[in-house]
Amino acid sequence: MSAPVKGPASYFPSIEKKYGRPIAEWQELIRASPLTRHMELVAWLKAEHGLGHGHANALVAYTLAEAAGG
């Protein structure tokens, strides 16, 4: 039996269901953005794409951690 998903990735199933896009697509949008700071990216996802704060925060945290090698 696999361990339950924790951290930002635990939001991914509900993000995909609610907004109809795969996580990889959200990550590409984040990577392609000229913004680099965490809260700037969160605010942008909320304003431009209608994401809730928790979902935007989870996507940004996960994507930036991946880019940093973590």
TrEMBL record:
This is DUF4287 domain-containing protein. It comes from Streptomyces bobili. InterPro entries: DUF4287. The lineage of its organism: Bacteria, Bacillati, Actinomycetota, Actinomycetes, Kitasatosporales. It holds the Pfam family DUF4287. It comes from the Bacteria.
